[in-house]
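ok posting inputs for the guanine job
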Amino acid sequence: MAATLIDGRAIAAQIQRELTARVAQLKQHGVTPGLAFVRVGEDPASKVYVGRKEKACAELGIVSETHFLPEATSEAELLALLAKLNSASHLHGILVQAPLPKQIRESVIYSSVLPQKDVDGFHPVNIGKLMLGDVTGFHPCTPAGVMELLVRSGVKTEGAEVVVLGRGNIVGKPMAAMLCQKGRAANATVTICHSATRDIKAHCLRADILIAAMGVAEFVKADMVKPGAVVIDVGVNRISDPAAKNGSRLVGDVDFAAVEKVAGKITPNPGGVGPMTIAMLLQNTVRAAEKSLN
Ligand code: GUN
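and the output
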C-alpha cells in the first residue's frame, strides 16, 4: 500500500495563516516586522531560495530588504554590512544565505549576527540554547520545520527510534538535538549516521522515523526502510538528466518512487520540507519582532 503523503505546502500555509493574526497584532502596536536578506556571490540555488523567502515575507506583511554583495567580497566587508544591519531598529531579523564564498568563514559571520536578530538560529548562543532546552532562543528553520511536520501530521516521536542521516550544522546536528529534548513533542531515541557509519542500512531498518539530510541523491532505497516507517526527505540535489529541458533536475535524498511503497508516511520532494523552512523563518521573524516589544 502506498504511503500517506505529508503535505508540507498545506501545513506551511496553515502556519502562515496563524502568523497573519500575530503580524496584525504587531502592527496595532506600531511594529512592522522587518527582515534583511544578505546574499553573497552567484550561487544559483541561493538566488532561488532567497527569492522564495522574499515573496513569502511580502505575502505575510513582513517588510524585507535584500543586500547583494559580489563573489569577491571580503569577510571584513560583509562584517561591516552586518554591523549596520545589527544596529538598524527597523530590522528584527537578519539572514545571511549559505553557502558563502570560500574567503569568508561562515562561523565568523554567523557569530556576528546579534543573537536576538538571528532568525536562522545559527549563532552559537542560539545553538547553545537549543542544546540546553532553553526555549528563549531561535531554532534553525529546516529542522524546526521537520518537527512541525511530524507534530501536525500526528506522528508520535515520544519513545520512537529516529535515525537522522547527515551531521551538518544546518540540519543533521540541530535536528538530533530537537528530537532528543525532554518534552511530549520530542523524547525520541536518536541515532545520527554519517559518512563514517559502518552499516547505515542496519540503522535505517531500525528507524520508526527516518530523516534523510546528507545531500546524496536518492540514497535511501526501499530495502533500507522498515515497513510503515515515517520518511522525511530534506535533500535537494541536482542530477544530470539528458531528457530534462536544461539537462538536469532536482531530486531528494530518498528514492521516492520506491520508498513510498514501503513507508507509512512520507514527505513529497518538492512540497515537503522546503515550504516548512520558509514558514519557520517567517515564524522566527514574527517572534523576533514580538520580543522587540518587551
Ligand atoms: N542555505 C541552505 N539552507 C539555509 C538556511 O536555512 N539558512 C541560510 N541562511 N542559508 C541556507
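notes: The longest strand covers residues 34-40. The two ends are 51 Å apart (CA to CA).
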